[in-house]
């Protein structure tokens, strides 16, 4: 297909599910990871063993400003033109309000908001016209987050960013949208105590967590449907329906 999609944090969790979903449709992939090369390489081999596509991995930590240059320089060196970008990787902080430090707050906002803004500033002119940028927002950017103030507020900022970026991407013929997942059965959620999981499931109309493959289809839809622009698509199974 020769349509490259960059997925940050694309070697595990939701990012990995999105990678497999897009690979099944023939997209070539550039997947970033923060530290675990072995996991990233295993994902790359898995994808190559199943699909006839090009898969590349690149170490780029979203908490480090230097990673912006790492990605930009890699694209230039490899002469890669991206069709779409999926900002999947994110950061949270579960310190109490009383214990929350400015440093931790700033780190969450850098990873979730600043990093994608300034990466796009560097690479937007190098993307293929007609492509799409998909951010990962969160249900916790809409509903009050009782555990992480920094995460909830930063994801609200991501939603606002998507709405505002529509205007700025017009000259580049790029669309921009976001997926706002509810509770998804990633490694993080699967390790939650059973009692907490049951409490969450009771608030979801469908009575269960989302499977990563179900969520991945939403990302694919936003990349391929050319009339979605500036949308925050919530995928929460009917959370808080009661």
Spell out the blueprint of helices and strands.
Blueprint (H helix, E strand, L loop, with lengths): L3 E4 L5 H12 L3 E6 L3 H14 L4 E5 L6 H13 L3 E6 L14 H22 L8 E5 L12 H21 L5 E7 L5 H4 L3 H8 L10 H13 L7 E4 L7
Helix pairs in contact: 1-8, 3-4, 4-5
Mean pLDDT: 94
Enter the CATH topology name: Rossmann fold
CATH class reads Alpha Beta
Biggest sheet: strand arrangement: 3-2-1-4-5-6-7
Overview of this structure, please?
This protein has a single domain, classed as Rossmann fold (3-Layer(aba) Sandwich), CATH 3.40.50. By secondary structure, the chain is an alpha/beta fold. The model has no long low-confidence stretch (mean pLDDT 94). A 7-stranded parallel sheet has the order 3-2-1-4-5-6-7, sandwiched between helices. The protein contains 8 helices and 7 strands. The longest helix is centred in the middle third of the chain and has 22 residues.
């Amino acid at each position: 297909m020769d349509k490259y999609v960059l997925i940050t944090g694309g070697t595990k969790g939701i990012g990995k599910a999105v990678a497999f979903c897009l690979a099944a449709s023939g997209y070539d992939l550039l997947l970033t990871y923060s530290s675990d090369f072995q996991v990233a390489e295993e994902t790359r081999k898995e994808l190559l063993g199943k699909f006839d596509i090009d898969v590349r991995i690149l170490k780029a930590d979203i908490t480090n400003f230097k990673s912006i240059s790492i990605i930009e320089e890699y694209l230039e060196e490899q002469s890669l033109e991206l069709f779409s970008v999926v900002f999947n990787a994110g950061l949270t902080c579960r310190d109490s309000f009383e214990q929350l430090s400015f440093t931790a707050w700033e780190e969450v906002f850098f990873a979730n908001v600043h990093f994608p803004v300034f990466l796009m500033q560097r690479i937007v002119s190098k993307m293929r016209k007609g492509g799409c940028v998909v951010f990962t927002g969160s249900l916790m950017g809409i509903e009050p987050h009782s555990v992480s103030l920094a995460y909830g507020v930063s994801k609200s900022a991501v939603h606002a960013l998507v709405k505002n970026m529509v205007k700025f991407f017009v000259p580049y013929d790029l669309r921009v949208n976001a997926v706002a997942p509810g509770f998804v059965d990633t490694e993080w959620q699967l390790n939650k105590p059973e009692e907490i999981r049951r409490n969450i499931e009771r608030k979801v109309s469908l009575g269960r967590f989302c499977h990563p493959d179900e969520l991945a289809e939403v990302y694919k839809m936003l990349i391929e449907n050319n009339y979605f622009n500036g949308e925050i698509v919530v995928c929460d199974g009917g959370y808080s329906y009661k």
